[in-house]
Write a structure and sequence with these properties.
19 strands, 2 domains, about 300 residues, seven-stranded mixed β-sheet, mainly beta, five-stranded antiparallel β-sheet, Fumarylacetoacetate hydrolase, domain 2, globular, 5 helices
Amino acid sequence: MQSIAAVATVLCMPTSAAHNVMATKVVRFEDAKGRILYGQPSGQDKVLLLDGNDPFESLRLSDVEVDMAKLLAPVPRPQAIYATGRNYLDHIKARNATPPKTPSLFFKNIFAYNHPNHPVIIQAGQKLPDYEGELAVVIGKDCKDVSEENALECVLGYTICNDVSERCLQTENDETGCLGNGGQFSFSKGFDTHAPLGPALVPTEVLGDASGLLLQTRVNGELRQNASTSDMIFGVKQQVSFFSQGTTLPLGSVICTGTPLGEGVTWDPPTFLQDGDVVDISIAGIGTLSNPIVRQSSTVLV
């Protein structure tokens, strides 16, 4: 695998040689003119552009370096955001739940899509907002009925997802005043801004099946989640294969693969997100996804 420092030397190469170098980490960003571009970090706020500017077509690097003005989610807003529940055993035990026999799928509203460093807006009336640090899979082409053996052929690469969740809407209505929602997950996890993605996309050629990666979540610098992606009950291949059965996973869609033990609801006492908190989720080889929390004050949900 070529280092970013080594890739930076491409600037001194002939164009034909530069075009043979493949990106090992891709960011999506705006430049000073507001253009949305893709490339590989090459220095402080410097990016070496992709040749063709479309990672779904090619990860080849050009010899053009530009300044980055604003970091964006590494993929445009996807057609679908899939998510896997109950996929780490310690997380399941802490919730007194039963491990599923197959991957447990729910969906996040596509308007939950959000960027690194952008605020996560907690709607007024949401009482128990929580963080969930997760490995995210980016689908690189339309895939349907794919086998586990061939599943990685569908995966362009990996990034990080914060599966922000409103615990009040994951349960039945109860005496605490939570509205409840019949016990299903999609509504509780689909509020606008509740799926930040980033900071970068790392290709499958670099991370393989993304097992063995250290995942850590911090809130205001305090370590809350600390696990390995190898602790997932269902790995990337199993999830991609299972979710594609009879269903087309569209190019650019994202799968958030589940969260380990340590979400706020499992702490004693439970500790939920407050106005001004900063959530940092790090995965080895990918980077750190950071987002501030903004809690609105006026009552909306009644």
